[in-house]
Write a structure and sequence with these properties.
It is a single chain. This protein has 103 residues and is an alpha+beta fold. It is built from three helices and five strands.
């Protein structure tokens, strides 16, 4: 899973992350990671840091992208489910023709 393929999703979700986190399911990160693995076979596939409050944003996905979950974790170790879904697909990179070289 490419980190670049997650940027658009993360940017969209983080616009309203504060209000979403207030309504989300939150628990210690270790518990949520264990639940995602056991119940959905999801593993971490991408992560990044939010500048505003140093939250860790992590994308978990199951093999083949059947299900996915986006977590936001505080420095104190509490994580919240921001959103989840199904059918996660990695964006395919576009091939560019090098200038002056035949393809």
């Amino acid at each position: 899973m490419k980190i670049g393929s997650c940027i658009a999703l993360v940017a969209f979700v983080l616009v309203s992350a504060s209000s979403v986190l207030a309504q989300s399911y939150c628990a210690p990160r270790s518990e949520l990671v264990e639940q995602l693995g056991e119940q959905y076979s999801e593993v971490p596939v991408a992560h990044g840091l939010m500048n505003a409050n140093d939250r860790l944003i992590e994308l978990f996905a199951s093999p083949g992208g059947k299900t996915w979950t986006l977590l936001a974790s505080s420095p104190g170790g509490v994580s919240c489910v921001v959103t989840s879904g199904y059918g996660w697909r990695e964006a395919m990179p576009k091939l560019l023709k090098p200038t002056g070289l035949p393809i």
